[in-house]
C-alpha cells in the first residue's frame, strides 16, 4: 500500500483535530510533520508531535499538506501554499484565501470529488457552515432542483479559534459562580455566554458578513450552479463549544415531500437522518450540537413541508464544525486523492 | 385619577415581572392582590406581596386581572377567567388557551389596540415570540404589504419557566467547574447548557411544534390578515437566560429598502433600531438578548435587502421574552384599556 509523507500546518484546534482524524481514519501516512509559527511539542490523544517552524523548505519531500487555516486573517497557505505546491506537494487548505479562485477546486468529497481531477496543487476546503449545508442540498438538488435556499445559523465558538473557546469557558465559570462578567473580548465584542451574537466575520457594503457571503458563493461553487438564490438570513454565534446548527428552507422546482427528502439523505454518504420526533429516546428526536460533537457525520432532522407550499421544505442540520466543517473534510479530500491516485507523489 | 383594583394571577417568573412592570409604569392601582396555587409571601424588588390562593371569589371587586399563564398546560385562566369576567373583572391572559378564540381579542397595543373595543371580559396576550415579531411586521405591512414571512428563533430558557432557568444555571455551574452533566431534565429532554434544542412545545401531525404554529396563527390574527404566508423554519431553545432573538425574512408586494424599513421602525412605538454595524461601540452595532434583558423595548438590526431581490428584506429582532413577550405587553393592554375607558369598572 502506498504511503505518504504528510504535513499538518497549524497547531490550534483545527490542526489538532486534523491529527486526530488522520489517526482515527488510519490514513496511510508514512510520516506526519506538524508545522506552525514556532517549535514546541504538541500532544494529541497521547501522541507527541514535534512542531517545527513553517518554512518553504519544510515542504520538501512532503506529499500532502493539510493547512488548518486561520480565522479572520490570511492563512499560512497564502505564504507557503504556492511554494509547497511548486515542490510537488498537494496543498489542502482549510482557510478562506483560495476557495473562490477559479483554478482551485473547492471540494466536499461526497458532493463534488470529481472536481479534484482538475487540481493544480492547491485544493480548498469549504467554510464549516457551507460543508454541512451542501451535504444536505446535493441529493435534493440532483433529484428536485433547488431554486432557492434561506438559512439561519447557530454557530459554535470553536469556529472562532482557541481564544474564543477559552473566552466562553471563562465566562461560563463566572456565570456558574454567579459572578458578573465585566468585560468582553478579546475573541468577541460582547459577552458570548448566555448571549447570541449575530455577527461572524466583517461586514460588506450591503451589510452582510463575510460568513454569510461564504454560504452564498461557496455553496454555488460546490454545487456547480450559480442559478440558486441563496439568502443568508443570519450567521449567529451561540454559546456552544462545538457543533454548528443550521435552520434551512429550500424551494425546489419539483415538489418534494419530507419522506422523499429523508430517503435521499439516508442513501447519501456522510449524512444521518435523526427525525423520529415522537421517540422515547430524546437523542433520536432531532440533532443537537452536543450530540454531534466529535463525530464525522452530519445530522439532519425536523424535516417538514412548508405550510401550503409543496415546493418548500424546511429542516435542521447539525455537524461538528471542527470535523466535517474542517478537519474531517480536509482528510477526506486527501483520502479521495489517494483513492484516485491523484496525489502527485507516493513512496 | 381613576384607580383600579388589580389582581395578578401567578407568582412565577412572569407573575413577578408583571408586578415589577406595574410598579415601574406607575400603573394606577388602588390595590394589587397576588393569587396563586398556595398562600405565601412573594418579595419583588423589596416589596412584599401576600399571595392568596386563587378562587373565583377572590376576583370579587377586582377590576383588572392579569393572568401570568403557564407553559405547556392549561392556565388558571381556563378555570377562573370566565368566572372573573362574569364578576365584572377584565381578564388579560398571558396563557395560550384563549388566544385563537374568535370572541377574544389578541392584542399587542402598538399594533391593534382597536381590537380591545370588542372585548367581552377576556383579552389575550400573544406568545412571546409573536409579540416582538408583529411589532416589526406591522409598519412594513401597512406601507409595503407583506406577502410572506420566514423565521428562525433563538429563544431563552426563561420562556419555559423557573425550572428551566434553574436547570440552565445548574448546568452552567457544572460546565464552569469542568464537571460532566450526566442527566438532563426535568425542564428539557437533553442538556441545554452549551447546546441548542430545536423544539419548543409539542409536535403536530405535520411535524411542526406548537410554538412554531403560534407564530403562524397569532401573527395573522394580530395583523388581521390571513393571506400572509408564514414559514416557521424553526423555534429553537438556546442557552440564554432572558431574551428571544429572531432571524426574519419577509417578502413584500412593493419593494422596500433597508433605509425605508429602518425609518418606519424608528417612528413606531416600542421599537428601537440598533443597526450601526460599524460603530466603535459594540452595543450600537446590533441587538443581543443580553442587552435587551429587563427592557420593555424590542430591538431590530442587521437589516439587509435580499441578494438580488428588491422585494425581500432580512433582519434580526430581539426582545425580553418576560417583558414585551409577556408582562410588559399585558400591562400595556391594561394601560390601553384604562386610557380608553374600556375597563368596566373603576373606583
SSE arrangement:
The structure is a homodimer of 347-residue chains.
Chain A: E1 4-9, H1 13-24, E2 29-36, E3 40-44, E4 47-53, E5 64-67, H2 76-86, E6 90-93, H3 109-112, E7 122-124, H4 128-144, E8 146-155, H5 162-176, H6 210-223, E9 229-237, E10 244-252, H7 258-266, E11 271-273, H8 289-292, E12 298-306, E13 309-319, H9 323-340
Parallel strand pairs in A: 1-2, 1-5, 2-4, 5-6, 6-7, 8-9, 11-12
Antiparallel strand pairs in A: 3-4, 8-10, 10-13, 12-13
Helix pairs in contact in A: 1-9, 4-6, 4-9
Mean pLDDT of chain A: 95
Q: Report strand % of chain A.
A: 25-35%
Q: In whole angstroms, how far apart are the ends of chain A?
A: 9 Å
Largest interface: A-B, 64 and 64 residues
Shape estimate of chain A: globular
Sheet/helix structural class of chain A: alpha/beta
Largest sheet of chain A: 7 strands, mixed
The string of secondary-structure elements of chain A, in order, is EHEEEEHEHEHEHHEEHEHEEH
- Count the E strands of chain A: 13
CATH topology of the largest domain in chain A: Dihydrodipicolinate Reductase, domain 2
The tally of structural domains of chain A comes to 2
Per CATH, the class of the largest domain in chain A reads: Alpha Beta
Q: Spatial order of the strands in the main sheet of chain A?
A: 3-4-2-1-5-6-7
**Cα radius of gyration of chain A in angstroms:** 20 Å
Enumerate the spans of chain A where pLDDT stays under 50 for 5 or more consecutive residues: none
Reported CATH architecture of the largest domain in chain A: 2-Layer Sandwich
Helix content of chain A: 25-40%
Which oligomeric state applies?
Answer: homodimer
Question: CATH H-level name of the largest domain in chain A... which superfamily?
Answer: Dihydrodipicolinate Reductase, domain 2
Amino acid at each position: 500500500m502506498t504511503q505518504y509523507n504528510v504535513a499538518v500546518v497549524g497547531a490550534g484546534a483545527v490542526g489538532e483535530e486534523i491529527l486526530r482524524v488522520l489517526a482515527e481514519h488510519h490514513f496511510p501516512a508514512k510520516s506526519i510533520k506538524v508545522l506552525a509559527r514556532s517549535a514546541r511539542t504538541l500532544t494529541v490523544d497521547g501522541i507527541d508531535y514535534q512542531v517545527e517552524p513553517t518554512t518553504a523548505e519544510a515542504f520538501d519531500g512532503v506529499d500532502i499538506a493539510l493547512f488548518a487555516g486561520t480565522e479572520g486573517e490570511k492563512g499560512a497557505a497564502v505564504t507557503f501554499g504556492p511554494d509547497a505546491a511548486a515542490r510537488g506537494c498537494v496543498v489542502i487548505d482549510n482557510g478562506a484565501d483560495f476557495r473562490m479562485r477559479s483554478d482551485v477546486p473547492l471540494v466536499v468529497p461526497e458532493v463534488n470529488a470529481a472536481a479534484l481531477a482538475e487540481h493544480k496543487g492547491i485544493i480548498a476546503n469549504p467554510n464549516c457552515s457551507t460543508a454541512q449545508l451542501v451535504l444536505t442540498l446535493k441529493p435534493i438538488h440532483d433529484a428536485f432542483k433547488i431554486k432557492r435556499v434561506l438559512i439561519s445559523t447557530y454557530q459554535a465558538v470553536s469556529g472562532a479559534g482557541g481564544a474564543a473557546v477559552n473566552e466562553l469557558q471563562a465566562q461560563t465559570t463566572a456565570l456558574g459562580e454567579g459572578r458578573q462578567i465585566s468585560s468582553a473580548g478579546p475573541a468577541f465584542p460582547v459577552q458570548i455566554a448566555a448571549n447570541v451574537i449575530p455577527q461572524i466575520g466583517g461586514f460588506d457594503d450591503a451589510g452582510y458578513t463575510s460568513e454569510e457571503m461564504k454560504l452564498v458563493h461557496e455553496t454555488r461553487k460546490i454545487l456547480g450552479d450559480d442559478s440558486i438564490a441563496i439568502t443568508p438570513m443570519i450567521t449567529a454565534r451561540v454559546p456552544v463549544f462545538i457543533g454548528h446548527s443550521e435552520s434551512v428552507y429550500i424551494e425546489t422546482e419539483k415538489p418534494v415531500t419530507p419522506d422523499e427528502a429523508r430517503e435521499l439523505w439516508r442513501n447519501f454518504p456522510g449524512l444521518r437522518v435523526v427525525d423520529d420526533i415522537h421517540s422515547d429516546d430524546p437523542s433520536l428526536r432531532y440533532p443537537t450540537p452536543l450530540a454531534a460533537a466529535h463525530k464525522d457525520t452530519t445530522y439532519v432532522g425536523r424535516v417538514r413541508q412548508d405550510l401550503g407550499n409543496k415546493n418548500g421544505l424546511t429542516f435542521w442540520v447539525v455537524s461538528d464544525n471542527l470535523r466535517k466543517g474542517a478537519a474531517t473534510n480536509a482528510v477526506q479530500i486527501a483520502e479521495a486523492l489517494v483513492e484516485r491516485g491523484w496525489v502527485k507523489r507516493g513512496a
